[in-house]
Structure prediction request, 347 residues.
Amino acid sequence: MKILNNIKSKGTYKLALTLSVIGLFLTVLVSAFTSDSRSENTLEPDTRVKKDSIQSVEAFKKVYAVLQSPRCVNCHPSGDIPLQGDERKLHAMFPKRGPEGKGMLTMKCNNCHQDENTAGLKTPPGSPNWHLPPADMKMVFEGKSAYELAKQLVDRKQNGNKDLKALIAHADDGLVKWGWEPGEGRTLPPISHAAFKEAWITWLTTGAYAPTK
Amino acid sequence: MPLLWFLRDVVGLTGTKYGCGVAQCGACVVHMDGEAVRSCVTKMKRAVGKEVITIEGLSEKGDHPLQVAWKDVDVPQCGYCHAGQIMSAAVLLRERPNPTDQDIDDAMTGNICRCGTYSRIRQAIHHAASLQKK
Prediction:
């Protein structure tokens, strides 16, 4: 009875309410910055982003769909021979990656792939600096789960040492944008470049959370 | 106009052949600034300011080690692909003076021979490599 009377007093009531609000706030804050069963923040702690794991994971779904399309996977293969076509078969003639990702010997990428697409079906597409990732950092997309790819994309030891700023800028890289102007007979990624770029930046600036394993 | 047709129809150098027109067969290989490019898809504007060498220019007297080796081993059957084969092999030998079979596979995989002279091509490349050392 005595305790009830105390709780009902104005001052104590206000204190209890304030403490409750603070406690709720702290709970939300902690869960956004720690691993949970739904997602994992893969960016470094000092990156200035507005973390939102739900929005981040939702955005990455769109990013992942693009990165798994033939226009991206074909040059991010698991092996050392690029893939070709919507059917993702091994590139005809089996050119190899080479140490710098620019081909080898007589089969250097730029021997056939010029600064722009060659007109006609089944002809070499083109963009300036046509290449694969180098042998010491293959940046494989083929066969990667959404979780694995999300972690890889922001790992500077696996992404060409790109920080947040460089990652954001990469959406406008020439080879990336080529994916939406691939030439005759090649399908486009599932969303527009503008939509991809928006999803990419959203994913990055909301904490680059990786989806569930 | 692709470089191939300029070379053949305008300049009159017909040693370089048209095989597929889509950079798949290698019959049209020439050297452009030392690299083995496929002239059937190479636009003329890409060749501006570049040094282009065709099979006719590989040597003055036809005595490039590969040309000698090709004769020694009697490589060609119909002969149509061999200008491109030799031009590709020339880049290989420049970059790998002592090529292994794997090097030959990697470098020559883009040159197709309908007559199937691949084993003689390999043999001739090894022979040319030994001639180069002399």
